[in-house]
Amino acid sequence: MLLSESERGVIPASFSIRFTPSAKLVVVVRRFVLSFYTRVLEDMEVSSQLALATHELLENAVKYGTTNDAVLGVSVVAVAEGRDGYDIDVSVRNSASAEHLAEAKRVIDAIDARDDTFAYYQEQMLVASEREMGSGLGLARIAAEAGMRLSVEIEDDELEIRARAHFTPDLS
Amino acid sequence: MIPSSLEVGELSASSSQSGEIVNLAFAGNADGRSDKALEKFLHELHAEIVTLPVILVEVDIRSLEFMNSSCFKGFITWIVQVRRMKRPSRYRIRFLATSKHPWQKRSLHAISFFGGAELIEVVTGD
Predict the structure, then answer these.
(1) Cβ distance A142 to B104 under 8 Å?
(2) Which residue, among A26, A58, A135, A150, would best test binding to B if mutated, counting the most B CBs under 10 Å from its CB?
């Protein structure tokens, strides 16, 4: 039986991993997420969006984390009876400097304030072309390319950035 | 002279010229280990191309498993440079993509919208 061949469609499939993120390991984890959820969801498109969000959020932890510790959580949950589809959720928690905590919140608030995340992404692409350091595009890319909604929680020197979306499987 | 190759992290790139067309091929992973080198490579490529009678750069990313946002920025910066060129000498950029890596379709949609149809063309095959 395939993993997704349950009566309700997609079987809930979640995991979390705590590790010291590095550029090399981000690639390994992204490949795992893509491979695992392609099998679970039988939907390469959605799995690819999950993988993109995983990669961008983990790379933020590599670049801005102030300790050797990050926690990645990925979940796919079938929604309540009577509704189609499933909810997907990717989160990364790590510590960061006060400056970066504020910057992450500022960017996510800016994205959240816009109805058209693609237009915001286009504006940020132009801004990025003038930047000396970094691209500042990772979070906007998750919102615009993966179609996921971002939120952030900050507690002391830790932040958790979460990307969520609802997908309805194409049953045709 | 066109910079011929790049090997950094898990990313490799090679280039060649055939008449008025420059071919660029990328393979592997473009991530946090390769962003600066990629941006420098594209900057040097552009600086050389503008001295040559090139009308098209064909960028083959079909073997590129993934590109992160900081490497994406390298392409954006390049496109802005081309966009600022005067029309008669401006060259076009054609991306060759594959549906096997779904991120390519979404990222190239964003990049082609940014560059404009006059400048960017995307050809996607299996």
Answers:
(1) no
(2) A135
pTM above 0.90, yes or no: yes
Cβ-defined contact of B114 to A125 (cutoff 8 Å): yes
Distances (CA, A) of B116 to A12, B73, B83, B93: 41, 16, 9, 11
pLDDT tens digit sequence for B53-109: 999 999 999 999 999 999 999 999 999 999 999 888 899 999 999 999 999 999 999
Task: Give the residue on A whose Cα is nearest the Cα of B33.
Answer: A23
Residue B87: partners with Cβ closer than 8 Å, 6 or more residues away? none
- Report how many Cβ contacts below 8 Å link chain A to chain B: 79
Instruction: Supply the range of the domain harboring residue B43.
Output: 5-125
- Kindly list the residues from chain A whose CB atom is less than 8 angstroms away from the CB atom of residue B69: 56, 59, 135, 137-138, 141
Can you spell out the DSSP letters for A14-83?
EEEEEE---HHHHHHHHHHHHHHHHHHH--HHHHHHHHHHHHHHHHHHHHHEEEEEEEEEEEEEEPPTT-
Fold entry, domain A13-167: Heat Shock Protein 90 (3.30.565)
Give how many domains chain B has, as a whole number: 1
Residue whose entry in the numeric block shows the structure tokens 């959605």: A46
Q: Report ipTM (2 d.p.).
A: 0.94
Domain at B77, CATH number: 3.30.750.24
